[in-house]
Design a protein that fits this description.
Distance between the termini: 178 Å
Shape: rod-shaped
Number of domains: 1
Helix content: over 70%
Radius of gyration: 53 Å
Structural class: mainly alpha
Order of helices and strands: HH
Number of helices: 2
Length: 125
């Protein structure tokens, strides 16, 4: 055997070792890909219920917001109603003129006095 034959044998052995290493490495790579695929499948299975819950939460939040807006609207209406009533009460003294009331009372008392005097005079005449 010559030197070239020995080198060719070493080269063939190295190629076989390299091929065996390549087979093991590709097998590990395949297992890693299968593990990644399994993890992605698990994540997608867990994500669907989370998304469903998120959709339900969003729907409930929209409903709560709508209810809150309705309550605020009713509260504003109630406040405006009270404000109108308070303004009416505040404006009431302007509508009820005390001087006018006193003059009406004096007129009525004067009329009663005249009626009494006429009655008295008719009674004794």
């Amino acid at each position: 055997m010559t030197l070239i034959d020995v080198l060719i044998i070493i080269l063939i052995v190295a190629a076989v070792v390299l091929c065996v290493y390549l087979v093991f490495t590709l097998n590990k790579l395949r297992k890693s890909f299968e593990s990644i695929e399994n993890d992605i499948h698990i994540i997608s299975e867990k994500t669907v219920p989370v998304l469903d819950n998120l959709e339900e939460i969003t729907r409930k939040a929209a409903q709560i917001t709508g209810d809150a807006e309705e309550q605020i609207s009713e509260l504003k209406s109630f406040i405006h109603s009270i404000k109108r009533k308070v303004n009416r009460v505040v404006d009431l003294p302007g509508k009820i003129n005390p001087e006018h009331r006193v003059s009406e009372l004096l007129k009525n008392l004067n009329a009663v006095a005249k009626g009494f005097s006429v009655f008295w005079s008719k009674l004794f005449s």
